[in-house]
Design goal:
The structure holds two protein chains of two kinds. Chain A is α/β, with parallel strands linked by helices. Chain A has 22 helices and ten strands. Chain A starts with a helix and ends in a 9-residue tail after the last helix. The C terminus of chain A is likely disordered. Chain B has two domains: 197 residues, 3-Layer(aba) Sandwich (D-Maltodextrin-Binding Protein, domain 2); 102 residues, D-Maltodextrin-Binding Protein, domain 2 (3-Layer(aba) Sandwich), CATH 3.40.190. Chain B contains eleven helices and twelve strands. In chain B, the strands form four sheets. In chain B, strands 6, 7, 10, 11 and 12 form a five-stranded antiparallel sheet that branches. In chain B, strands 2-3-4 form a three-stranded antiparallel sheet. In chain B, a hairpin with a 2-residue loop joins β3 and β4. The N terminus of chain B is likely disordered. The chains are: A alpha/beta, B alpha+beta. At the A-B interface, α2, α4 and α8 of A face α1, α2, β2, β3 and α5 of B.
Chain lengths: 539, 305
């Protein structure tokens, strides 16, 4: 026992820790740099880079570290690269760690919800901006435990550097044992030192996880751990979030009240007649798109005028979502033309396709906002930041201006009091209202809404529809909405376009198409929908 | 002196400082060893001045000596101050260095890595109780300096009645280090054992003496055949568990390994060793480390194409 304590405090062994930590640090730092490059190559659009990265991974993940160490130490000098022992060990460990770290990074990036990436793209964020602001902050949080593991494993693997004369803990222990014959005391002592080191890594890991915990990031967040919904089921959680115990009652007073019908059919007709003389906001001509053999858009034509509200209806798979995504250039098309505000989307002057970055800039300047079925809020950002962030990053607004704009918009959708809440603490209806505020923030000329209420619980549908209704009636915003809400379409839309098989089967004034469909397919679809939601036939 | 040394090593905090510190530590070890060794207070042998004039490029140099420091008596860390290496080979190397005007730092590697470290240029010289064989001479040139007497280490009472590298080893497990010359000698007993209808001897390969000795202590191996001094040291450390069955002669010499492509350096080391021997230092060192004076051997060069 006294021998054990003697060796535990022996400066010779304590100094060995320094080399152990040194090799580990070199290995992790180098591994992180090479791993970043490898992960970027594997995720890249260029397949040659991905193949190269795969090849590297196969070689360095598939051969033992001890061979790599000996190689770096004894073989590299043959080609004139003579590293110190610590340098060679660090290099080998880095080369060995890199594929593992790359896989962690890749998993972290791929683990970020695709919908958020899509939403970022729709807001005009370039790939680099998306990576920095949306993907990386979320990926890093999920990767911390894996990084902790990797650090512990690198720390232990550094002991293999003893074969190439690095004076680290293991080598010093074996040498000491050879000359003193106190085998067990020495190895228990160095084992305990390793344990202390790995425990320190675990403590740091827990600390970092805690520091990055979103629920603790803000004063509200820190309080949130005492709130009951952290441990309750989903429906209760939504209800509690709706009640919002940290704030006064819901601000918009009229959301739950059945909305008043549009002033009158006469007003509606006036409105329709007025917009018919307006400029063209969106013009889609002979748009065609195929996924492999399946035709999604089959020569579709659509013209939407400024201030007009068009409802896209039709069965699932009729091309509604694809059409909306093409208008925002989130998807490419095979042939045809899309013009927004008179500007033709899609190709450079020389006819070649645009790079993702150029498309992002095009989106930001053309001004098309988009609201998704699944809300797609950035889950690591508060409601306010979801709105203000893109304004700063894409449109170069100052923090003060962006925050002011976010506050105004959140007030408008009745969520001023929830500005500091994270999306996960909001109900579905609230999330969708934040998403609408986010889409409106850059003052888009057209707002696209892709089934904005389909993912909501029935009792939350109305609050969202009401926000949209007011945008149409009070603000006169140009909107294209794909929806299954017949009554809502009847209320809000100037025009209904009925899609089937990738083209428009029937279109016309909303009330006319919905009450007296001419095409039998439209009629059948509407009667199916009407089974539970019949539009009132008289005003 | 000792105090200065400790302060220096405690300041190792940055990587480069650590490396520099190590260098200082090694230098300190060298100086300390120089002070402790009774004979090295004397001036270098008379012929050394002429050698330094003949080989001026070595003067003032710091060379790297690759060692497998797991052999107390020849090379191991000092149990009293683990920051330095002590033993016969260490002293001999430093005497040769003193004669030619260079100093040595040490690089601890596994036994099997001694010659690869030398040939990759990571070390300049190997003085680590390595037997000069024709096979090894393909990788390095040797200057032989000591005869070889092997001891057979067995558990107390020699339960398997092993009497050397002969058919008494049939069915026994021998612990050896990877790359040891005893490995092929034990393997050569497979055929005779078979011929006598006995089970073959088996080999367990380790990285250093300590592991081989532990293999016997743990009952995994029955014998460990190695340099007689190493065997004696092991018995001294575990007198109630181990014993030396017998000493055998092995037809090899111990040699200093130098790179094949540096014949001038090889000749310089050989000439310096002759001076050291002439001055009686070699025999004094044998006495200091309690080694058999019969080990003494006048140097030869072993070099094959």
């Amino acid at each position: 026992m006294s021998l054990f304590v003697h060796y535990l405090s022996l400066p010779y062994l304590i100094e060995g820790i320094w080399f152990t930590v040194m090799v580990t640090a070199l290995g992790l730092a180098g591994g992180l740099i090479v791993g970043l490059v490898l992960a970027a190559m594997q995720l890249s659009r260029f397949w040659m880079l991905a193949v190269f990265a795969r090849g590297y991974t196969v070689i360095f993940r598939g051969t033992p570290l001890i061979l790599q160490m000996v190689f770096a130490y004894d073989a590299l000098p043959q080609i004139g690269l003579k590293l110190s022992a610590v340098g060679a060990a660090g290099l080998a460990l880095a080369a060995n760690e890199a594929p593992f770290i790359a896989e962690m990074l890749r998993a972290g990036v791929l683990g970020v919800d695709r919908g958020q990436v899509l939403a970022g793209q729709a807001l005009g964020m370039t790939p680099a901006l998306l990576m920095r602001r949306i993907i990386a902050p979320q990926a890093i949080r999920t990767m911390i435990p894996a990084f902790g593991n990797e650090t512990v494993s690198a720390l232990k693997n550094s002991s293999l550097a003893s074969v190439i004369s690095v004076q680290e803990l293991t080598l010093r222990s074996t040498q000491l044992a050879s000359s003193t014959f106190d085998f067990f005391s020495i190895f228990f002592a160095s084992g305990l030192i390793y344990l202390v080191l790995t425990t320190a890594v675990s403590v740091i890991q827990l600390f970092v996880e805690r520091a990055l915990d979103l629920d603790r990031a803000t004063p509200q967040g820190r309080l949130a751990i005492f709130l009951p919904w952290r441990r309750v089921d989903l429906s209760t959680k939504l209800r509690l979030a709706e009640q919002a115990p940290t704030a006064p009652a819901e601000a918009p007073p009229d959301l739950s009240v059945p909305p008043p019908r549009a002033a009158s059919r006469v007003d509606r007709a006036k409105h329709a007649a007025m917009v018919a003389r307006n400029n063209v906001a969106v013009e889609v001509t002979d748009l065609r798109k195929k996924y492999d053999a399946q035709t999604v858009l089959d020569g579709l034509d659509l013209t939407v005028r400024v201030g007009e509200v068009v409802a896209l209806m039709g069965p699932s798979g009729s091309g509604k979502s694809t059409l909306l995504r093409c208008i925002n250039h989130l998807e490419n098309w095979d042939s045809g033309m899309v013009r927004v505000g008179g500007r033709r989307l899609g190709h450079r002057d020389d006819g070649r396709p645009l790079s993702p970055r150029e498309i992002a800039n095009e989106r930001a300047s053309v001004g098309v906002g988009m609201v998704f079925q699944q809300f797609n809020l950035f889950s690591h950002l508060t409601a306010r930041e979801n709105v203000a962030g893109p304004l700063r990053w894409v449109h170069g607004m100052t923090r003060v201006d962006a925050d002011r704009r976010a506050r105004e918009l959140l007030e408008r959708v009745g969520l001023g009091h929830r500005a500091d809440a994270l999306p996960r603490h909001l109900s579905g209806g609230q999330q969708q209202r934040v998403a609408i505020a986010r889409a409106l923030a850059p003052n888009p000329s057209v707002l696209l809404l892709d089934e904005p209420t389909s993912a909501l619980d029935p009792e939350l549908v109305n609050e969202v529809l009401e926000v949209i209704r007011r945008l149409a009636i009070d603000d006169g915003l140009t909107m294209i909405i794909s929806t299954h809400q017949i009554r809502f379409a009847d209320d809000v839309a100037d025009r209904v376009a009925f899609l089937s098989g990738g083209s428009i089967l029937e279109e016309g004034p909303a009330h006319e198409v919905l009450t007296n469909p001419r095409h039998p397919v439209t009629a059948r679809f509407l009667s199916l929908m009407e089974a539970d939601k019949a539009p009132e036939r008289t005003a | 002196m000792h105090k200065w040394f400790s302060t220096e090593t405690r300041t190792q905090r940055t990587p480069s400082a650590a490396r520099a510190g190590l260098r200082i530590a090694a230098l300190g070890a060298f100086l300390l060893a120089g002070l402790c060794a009774p004979m090295s207070a004397n001036a270098a042998p008379a012929g050394c001045a002429a050698l330094q004039a003949k080989y001026p490029s070595l003067k003032g140099k710091q060379l790297v000596n690759a060692i497998n420091p797991h052999t107390p008596g020849y090379e191991a860390i000092d149990p009293k101050d683990p920051n330095k290496y002590v033993g016969f080979d260490i002293d001999l190397g430093e005497q040769i260095g003193e004669c030619l005007g260079f100093t040595l730092t040490y690089k601890a590697v596994t036994f099997a890595a001694l010659l690869t470290t030398l040939s990759s240029g990571q070390a300049d010289i190997v003085i680590s109780d390595i037997y000069a064989t024709e096979e090894r001479a393909k990788a390095a040139d040797f200057i032989t300096y000591s005869k070889v007497f092997d001891g057979v280490l067995v558990a107390k009472g020699n339960p398997k009645k092993i009497t050397g590298i002969n058919t008494s080893m049939c069915g026994a497990a021998a612990a050896e280090n990877t790359g040891f010359v005893e490995v092929p000698l034990v393997q050569a007993m497979i055929a005779p054992c078979k011929a006598e209808g006995k089970p073959e001897p088996t080999l367990q390969l380790y990285d250093n003496n300590a592991n081989c000795i532990q293999a016997i202590l743990a009952g995994r191996a029955d014998t460990y055949v190695n340099d007689v001094n190493t065997v004696d040291q092991a018995v001294k450390a575990n007198p109630d568990k181990l014993e030396k069955a017998i000493a055998v002669t092995i037809p090899y010499s111990v040699g200093i390994a130098v790179p094949k492509n540096k014949p001038e350096f090889r000749d310089a080391v050989m000439a310096a060793l002759i001076e050291v021997q002439k001055a009686g230092i070699h025999k004094e060192l044998l006495k200091k480390w309690e080694l058999d004076p019969n080990n003494f051997k006048e140097p030869d060069i072993l070099s094959v194409k």
